[in-house]
What does this fold into?
Amino acid sequence: MRMWPFVKPFWFVALLSLLIGIPIGALDATIALFLKPYTDLVIVSNNAQAPWYLPFLIVGFTIVQGILIYVSSYLTSYAGGRLTCGVKEALYKKLIQLDTSYYDKQNTGVILVRFSGDADLASSGLLANLKSLVTKVCSTLALLCVLLYTSWKLAIIAIVVLGVTVAPLTMVRRLLKKIIKRSIEISQKISMNYNETYAGNKTIRAYNLQENQEISFIKHLREIFSLNMKSTRRTAWISPFMHFTVSIGVSLTIAYGSWLIVQNEMTAGDFVAFLAALLMMYTPIKALGGTIVNIQTGFLAIERIYEIFQMEPSITEKEDCRTLTAFNKEIAFNHVYFEYNENMPVLKDLCLTIEKNQSVALVGNSGGGKSTIISLLPRFYDVKEGSVTIDGIDIRDLSLQSLRDQISIVFQDNFLFNGSIRENILFGKKEATEEQIVMAVKSAYLEDFIAELPDGLDTQIGERGALLSGGQKQRVAIARAFLRNAPILILDEATSALDNKSEAIVQQAIENLMENKTVIIIAHRLSTIKNADKIAFIQEGELIEFGTHEELMEIPNGFYKNLYQLQFKTQEKEEANTAAQCV
It folds into this structure.
């Protein structure tokens, strides 16, 4: 029933793929039924007038069964594929909607396994196994009817043995649940190993971590192997047990059937038909164990998927949320408290006002809460106490899209998508004209670089912009922000990871981007922000000092003054060392 919303659009096809399993299974009984007259009339009585068409009927029914199997397989593949697509679409939609805090706590292995692998297990795989189950059950029931029709006395033996044979299948779920859960966890770690090896290949080589990564991977691989063996130990006995009970059933049937023939209570044809039906019935029963295991695995995957669907993002919009159409006055942080982990405050009673078209730099020691402040403005997280307002409106009362439409962000490590330079720039404004794109490229100082590329703006940059340098990535991100042209601009250490030459070019592009905007800057190099309208010194989540560069430098033993002088002295030493080396 949890999967019904996804099955509903094509429920008839899915149902038909399962229902066709009924005649497929039932047709198995026809072969056993035809053996009775053929044995009595031809083999036992040596009657030349026996129906000559019986072998052809068996072949005909087999052809019909084959056609039904093909149709069923096609419909099952179609329905399973549609179901998998539907579930994955819904899971991806949920993934996109989840908060930043969810991504902080999870890794890529969890995402790949829970949002993709489980969808396969719970959709096409489950449907295929259900079809197999329907076919086997219907085959068993049809053959059971043949047994009862041929000899109810022998059928009693078959039914008792059948009950004993399938009894262990009721324990499969209990035996597998914990193992499958742990296997999923280890599979997530293995997927993470692959991702870290790909994304961190340079770090691995730079620090000679190959052996370390290999040990971690082998450890997880061997643990998944151990879990698989544990699963085998818990369930593999089911199949030989079923074979054993089946052999007892066949032996009892032969013994008792032979006695019934001697007593003239059944004919040889009845016995052959019964024995054929019995053997044909036990064949799918013996294979039923694996099918049940796969179905239970699919059901457990559905449970995990349902857990994801029940997740609710903490960052939500109110039903009567307002639309922010323009930014006119000020941004205010009003007595803001925030924590990532309970009872571990990051911001404490922070009060900060940023006026329109004002540039405010956030400085301070690492871990003081600067990045947290800028993460609260676009509502990547929500405050614990207090409020963040734009023009006096609490941002929690605004729609997320209208709020974020008013903000552009240039990060220290900007994420570029696999595709072309043009496509990445257009993420700032999808409907931008060619003239607007050219202006953004020019303002971001990308003209000369793009002119050297054979495909220009349409040059492919690889996954995460792997084919670009750090400075080029930053300028593409700045061009993207130019196209967005939002009135509020956040610069999160946008030049800290660049060399001096790249920093100078990117800094020029940033100065173009800052024109006529309200700017919040985080920078460790104080020389790059001393011209900001205001500077806020943040320490341990509190606003310690606030003013212009000149005002803060006049504070005796001020925090900003001490930090600036420390950086200035360090810079002087570096310049002196460089000059000495040149001499």
Summary: The chain has 23 helices and ten strands. Residues 54-97 form the longest helix (44 residues). Strands lie at 330-341, 344-355, 359-363, 385-390, 393-394, 407-410, 488-492, 518-522, 534-539, 542-547. The radius of gyration is 36 Å.
